[in-house]
Amino acid sequence: MWRNLLLRGTTCLLQVAAPRFLHQRPFPPFSCVRLLTQRLLHRPPQLLGKGYFLAHSGTRAYKKDAKSTVDIPTSPVTITDIKQYLRSKEIPFHDGYSCLHIPSMFINPSDRKDSYSLFIDKTTGQFVCKDTLVEGSWEDIQDCLEVMQKQEQDFLSPHVLLGYPESMEEQEERETELREVQRIWSSSVPLTDVPEEEVLLVKTMFQISKVSNATLKKFGVRLFKPTKSLVFPWFGGTDSSLKGVKLLSAQSTDNNKVIYKEATVPKCNSFYSLFGLPLVGRMEAEVVLTGSELDTLAVSQATGLPSVALPRGVSCLPPILLPYLEQFKRVTLWLGDDIRSWEASKIFSRKLGLRRCSLVRPGEYRPCPVEALAQGKNLGHIIKSSIPAAHKSIVSFKQLREDVYGELSNTEQVAGVKWARFPELNRILKGHRKGELTVFTGPTGSGKTTFISEVALDLCMQGVNTLWGSFEINNVRLAKVMLTQFAMQRLEDNLERYDFWADKFEELPLYFMTFHGQQNIKAVLDTMQHSVYLYDINHVIIDNLQFMMGQENLSVDKFAVQDHIIGAFRKFATNSSCHVTLVIHPRKEEDDRDLQTASIFGSAKASQEADNVLILQEKKLVTCPGRRSLQVTKNRFDGDVGIFPLDFLKSSLTFEAPIQGKHKLRKVASKPENEGGEGKKVEVKKEKAAKTAKAPRTVTEKESVQQ
Ligand SMILES: Nc1ncnc2c1ncn2[C@@H]1O[C@H](COP(=O)(O)OP(=O)(O)OP(=O)(O)O)[C@@H](O)[C@H]1O
After folding, report:
1. Where is the SF4 helicase domain (predicted)?
2. What DSSP line would sit under 27-66, residue for residue?
3. What is the ipTM of this complex?
């Protein structure tokens, strides 16, 4: 039926696909309409009306608000498909590290400076032309090439691709941001214009005394006096104009450490600066990638090597930046001095292409670059001693010993990210770690979604990039629950505070899958894979597993189907270094008995594959009806298991430990593993906890790790 729409004329098509576009003046050129028509012919009907391709040439072709949702990749493209297509069209290409490079179709061949300036991401098919900054999808490239072929043209105007027109509101927001960037930049002063005593003071404050004035000048760093912040510019676009600024402030702590705080304009989720890039020559073949602007200053000054800093530090490497790193044959990742930086460098090197990457392993003699400079270390030596990212399939202990040492000497960091709202979970699980699988169960309607939502939100607020797959309740309702938990209040009664909280909430690295209802496991896994690549997702929550079962072949035993699905999630978690939390319904509802690990629906596969098993118990430790408690029945990390009570605050939809004194405290001591022996029942020893302890009634048990 959607094909029939074509018969009703182009205007109708435009109305269907891009109603707002019709109100744009001047009316789109004919070639746009042709492309739009072409695209509609290729598109499945469900994409019509989604407004998939409105926009301005040279600007981002995606709606701003589309960022927080992750669409199902309708037909994920593979590198083989891309190559085959290009060959069929006789388009020459270079096989780069993360991208294929082709001649840009948006430049007249006689004007092409660099003959291969259009970069196609090998994983997603997204492209960017570095000369015109036209961006788009793999379908856009196909459409452009088809049109060129039909019209026998050598090139197309960069304005040919349609995109989302900005709404008035978006336009205003963008203009306000640009004005703000200009205001900050023009009211900040180059450090060379600041009296030397003041510069010294600033350097002391930021602990960059060894960074020379010449280096600060070379990188265009300024001082914004009102907030005593350093200002790092982002120059970009075809005219290398000022696109944004990052403000960095420093605060000293009691133990002589410095805490840095940064703010960006535009907001961090559209801040795509690779600081230092304008200073890197086109012919340079080596670069040092750092996690902060100060580190880049240090590397550049101490080694003379080209260096660029990631815009959001170790939290992500947006694929949109990959084309700008394609020219380098060797990339050294020196992202920081902690385990998080080390893990991030391993993950980012996969995106960059393992073969060309080497990693600086954090350690006593290898702090972050700016600290290494301050300590008078030889940064060149540290870079030379970096290790290749591509790992061999067989290693000896000699190659592992540094990793083992790193784990032993950083036990706190190895234990993962700590919850801010759930100290009891920290006590039992020690933290939230990458690459693990958590299975979470609890009786129907007991509050599983509400609880896991707060647990995930807590981590997300600490920078854990999170993806929600909520198949049971829709994203609006889920986001409402999360926003209420975030604001810790009933926003229904405080609607005037909505924008305040929504603005803050929007800054979280939080994404939602656009699925609802029964889903096919492959589509879900593809989306997860896609989002790990795009947004460096560290935590995926699947609520719940039962919604993946319906699509599978019903003639097959449903336990076998579930086992297959759990195996697939397990594999994904391990291979993608991403934590997966899987909500599974219990086997059967028993009102008067506590659930156990064996109560999880299906075979024993779920609990065997899981690193952690969490059960939301209802009416456990009954002191009043309906009391909930959280029980950890499996913890592969260190074997500690236990249970703690939770009070539910209806107004904020949050959970907290019962107030002190309300319940008697109980503590269960660990049983040494060698006494219990494997498979033996855990013996529980009760102890009175110190009356002063703030902790709620908590039980911790130690059992030998279940395999
Ligand atoms: N501890 C609690 N006490 C009372 N009400 C709660 C509690 N926790 C959650 N609720 C409320 O109960 C309702 C159901 O919660 P939720 O959807 O989180 O349960 P669920 O276990 O995920 O349900 P299902 O089994 O259908 O998936 C929500 O309105 C929620 O606000």
Report:
1. 411-662
2. PPPHHHHHHHHHHHHHS-GGGTTS-TT-B-TTS--S-GGG
3. 0.96
